[in-house]
Amino acid sequence: MSRVWERTRGVSPVIGVVILVGIVAILAATIGVFALGFSEQQPTQAPQVAIVADYSERTTGNGEYLNLSFSSGETVYKDTLSVVMADVKRSDGSDVTLDADPIQTQASTRITSGTRITIHQDHFTGAESEHLDLSDATLRLVWNPADEPESETYVIYRWPDPSQRN
């Protein structure tokens, strides 16, 4: 009986080690696929910027205007930013459209802290003879990374803040 007992004891540890090595290899391969596969698919992070809006309701020669001041945050290139405005009107109530992107016409190549953009009547088609009315207007500052065509666009600033809208 001792011979049978010795053979059985010798086979069990070998089978256990083979199974354990197989499980470890499968787990390592699975973790490697997830770790390496998902790191390439992560979307580009939008830049973090702090912008202060100064809206003037007073009627100047150009009507109402909006100043956007970049107060802090990451450096952004103007080629990656665009202004989208909606519900902009003339003082008689008719719609006007944004003709020239104020960021492209006013900002330097690199937008950093201290950059200031003014949005006024001259940026809109159809507002030449009337004062500009921004009281119901909305603005979105959209970031689109130019060097990565497959990446998504992000709205990095909204005016007015949707939570403070009447």
From TrEMBL:
What is the top-level taxon of the source organism? Archaea
User: What positions does the domain Archaeal Type IV pilin N-terminal occupy?
Assistant: 9-86
Q: Which residues cross the membrane?
A: 12-38
Its keywords, alphabetically, are:
Membrane, Transmembrane, Transmembrane helix
Instruction: Respond yes or no to whether keyword DNA damage is given for this record.
Output: no
Is-annotated flag, keyword Acetylation? Answer: no
Show the Pfam families listed in the entry: Pilin_N
Entry-linked NCBIfam families: arch_flag_Nterm
Output this protein's name: Archaeal Type IV pilin N-terminal domain-containing protein
